[in-house]
Design a protein that fits this description.
Order of helices and strands: EEHEEEHEEHEEE
Protein name: Histone-lysine N-methyltransferase eggless
Subcellular location: Nucleus
Shape: globular
Strand content: 15-25%
CATH class of the largest domain: Mainly Beta
CATH superfamily of the largest domain: SET domain
Radius of gyration: 22 Å
Largest sheet: 5 strands, antiparallel
Structural class: mainly beta
Number of strands: 10
GO biological process, one term: heterochromatin organization
CATH architecture of the largest domain: Beta Complex
Organism: Echinostoma caproni
Helix content: under 10%
GO molecular function, one term: histone H3K9 methyltransferase activity
Length: about 280
C-alpha cells in the first residue's frame, strides 16, 4: 500500500486523452491476490477485445507511453508540506497492483510473463511522460530522417534558415565497409545458458564479459561487477563496451542484456545550429 503520509491528490497521465489532470483517489482496500498472466488483460471501455501488450505494436510512439496503452496507470504522489512535499511515482498494473520501484516492476513482469520490459517505465517524478519538445520556430522540417527504419521517428528540424539537408542513406543495423570485415563466425561468439532471461548478471556469461572488460580501463585493474545494463539502462559510463546476448543465447527479446540490438527507442531530434 502507498504510504499514508501522501495526500490523496494525485496527478495521472492519460495516454489516450493526451493530457494530465488531477482527481481525488479513494483509498479503497486492495484485493490481495497472486499475479498471473491474466493480470495483464485490459480492455478499453469502447472495445470488447483486449489491447495488445507487444511494444512493437506501438512503433512510433513515445516508449514511456506504451504501458498506458496496455492498461497501466502512472501516479505522481505529492507528500504533505511537512514532508517538504516529497514526490514519488507509483505504477498501477491492469489488475490494480501498485508498484513503487523498478525492482517491483521487474518482478511483476516476470511473474505475469509480460511482453513489456523495464525500460518502458520511469520512476523519475521530474519526467512528464506525454510532454514532447517542439521547436518554437521551424523553417524546414523532415518528419523522419530514418524513413521508417527506426522504431520511432527521428525528426530533422531547421530553425536557422531554409536549408534542407540532402538525402542520406540511414542505416539502422551494422553494415561492413571495404576492408572492415565483420566477425560472424559462430565459433568465436560467446553465448550464455541462462534460463531467467539473464536477470542474474553473476551467472550470465555475456554480462560477465562486460564486467571483465571494465578492468581494462580501470587504472587499478579491478573488475566492476556492476558494469553494464541495470533494468535495461546504463547506470554509468562503460568504457570497456557492452557484450550483449546474441542469437546463440537461449534468452528472448525481453532479456535484460538485449538493448541496442532492438534499435532506437529513445526520442531524438536532429537540428541545425547557428554555429558549428
Amino acid at each position: 500500500m502507498v504510504s499514508s503520509w501522501f495526500r490523496t491528490l494525485m496527478e495521472v497521465t492519460d495516454a489516450y486523452a493526451k493530457r494530465s489532470y488531477h482527481f481525488y483517489f479513494s483509498h479503497s482496500p486492495t484485493v490481495t491476490h497472486k499475479c498471473y498472466p491474466s493480470c495483464l488483460t485490459y480492455t478499453k471501455p469502447s472495445s470488447t477485445a483486449p489491447v495488445s501488450e507487444n511494444p512493437f505494436d506501438y512503433k512510433g510512439l513515445n516508449p514511456l507511453e506504451i504501458p498506458f496503452h496496455a492498461g497501466w496507470l502512472r501516479y505522481l504522489l505529492v507528500g504533505h508540506p511537512r514532508e517538504n512535499e516529497r514526490q514519488m511515482i507509483v505504477y498501477r498494473a491492469p489488475c490494480g497492483r501498485q508498484l513503487r520501484s523498478m525492482h517491483e516492476v521487474q518482478r511483476f513482469l516476470d511473474r505475469t510473463n509480460s511482453q513489456l520490459t523495464t525500460d518502458l517505465f520511469c520512476f523519475d517524478p521530474s519526467v512528464v511522460i506525454n510532454s514532447e519538445f517542439r521547436a518554437e520556430k521551424t523553417l524546414t522540417n523532415i518528419a523522419d530522417i530514418s524513413y521508417g527504419k527506426e522504431n520511432i521517428p527521428v525528426p530533422c528540424v531547421n530553425s536557422v534558415d531554409n536549408e534542407v539537408p540532402g538525402y542520406i542513406e540511414y542505416v539502422a543495423k551494422r553494415q561492413p565497409i571495404d576492408k572492415v570485415p565483420l566477425l560472424q563466425d559462430d565459433n568465436f561468439v560467446v553465448c550464455c545458458d541462462c534460463t531467467d532471461n539473464c536477470r542474474d548478471r553473476n551467472k550470465c556469461a555475456c554480462q560477465q564479459l562486460t564486467a571483465e572488460a571494465s578492468s581494462l580501463t580501470n587504472p587499478s585493474g579491478m573488475v566492476d561487477s556492476q558494469a553494464g545494463y541495470r533494468y535495461r539502462r546504463l547506470a554509468q559510463f562503460t568504457v570497456g563496451g557492452i557484450y550483449e546476448c546474441n542469437a546463440k543465447c537461449p534468452c528472448d527479446r525481453r532479456c535484460s542484456n538485449r538493448v541496442v540490438q532492438h534499435g532506437l527507442w529513445a526520442r531524438l531530434q536532429l537540428f541545425k545550429t547557428s554555429r558549428k
